Known about the structure:
- The complex is a heterodimer.
- Chain A is an all-beta fold.
- Chain A has a single domain (about 5-115), classed as Immunoglobulin-like (Sandwich), CATH 2.60.40.10.
- Chain A is built from no helices and 12 strands.
- The N and C termini of chain A lie far apart (about 40 Å).
- Helix content of chain B is about 0%, strand content about 55%.
- In chain B, strands 2, 4, 5, 6, 9, 10 and 11 form a 7-stranded mixed beta sheet that branches. A 4-stranded antiparallel beta sheet of chain B has the order 1-3-8-7, with no helix packed on it.
- In chain B, a hairpin with a 3-residue loop joins strand 4 and strand 5.
- Chain B has strands at about 5, 10-15, 20-25, 30-40, 40-50, 55, 65-70, 75-80, 90-95, 105, 110-115.
- Chain B is mostly beta strands.
- At the A-B interface, strand 10 of A face strand 5 and strand 9 of B.
Amino acid sequence: AQTVTQSQPEMSVQEAETVTLSCTYDTSESDYYLFWYKQPPSRQMILVIRQEAYKQQNATENRFSVNFQKAAKSFSLKISDSQLGDAAMYFCAWWVIQGAQKLVFGQGTRLTINP
Amino acid sequence: DAGVIQSPRHEVTEMGQEVTLRCKPISGHDYLFWYRQTMMQGLELLVYFNNKAVMDDSGMPKDRFSAKMPNASFSTLKIQPSEPRDSAVYFCASSTFDRGNQPQHFGDGTRLSIL
């Protein structure tokens, strides 16, 4: 079974500093996507960044970047210059290209930004 | 373009009552997903549709839950009879199978409280 594991239930960082959230996954598939979603207190699920497994280059979106290690099945999220608005739950998710069209989510990491 | 629209945003009802949650997917999206989010279980997929047909409902308790998609722009998730353990946030999401256009787009969720 495919699983996604986020080993850090909670993280905190000082405003303007950098923080890295960890995610590992287990799959035998070779063609898939990985995502990071942000869920602020408003409970919306907001896509932060996505990575296609066949692309070796790590995805970046402004202050957000990933470190994708396919062999190690690791997909961490780095947030640079943390802002108060980054405070939220962050979910790592996996989606296979072929077959069942469903996202498999990790348990989430609650990120606190200290002013 | 309007996003995924869910109603109601909040629902409080007594145990044993019927509950109906509603979802309008993004126009043109042919996949629709229902998720449940709880503190203990995280985000779980209950059921998903492709072109109005149920593709996978293995995550849905069949004895009390039912999901329908009578047309491409509307879906319901019904719980009858409701129980306190059904209290959760229920998300609807939609997508289309376009490799470059993933991922799923989420609604704002319905917070359901069963007393």
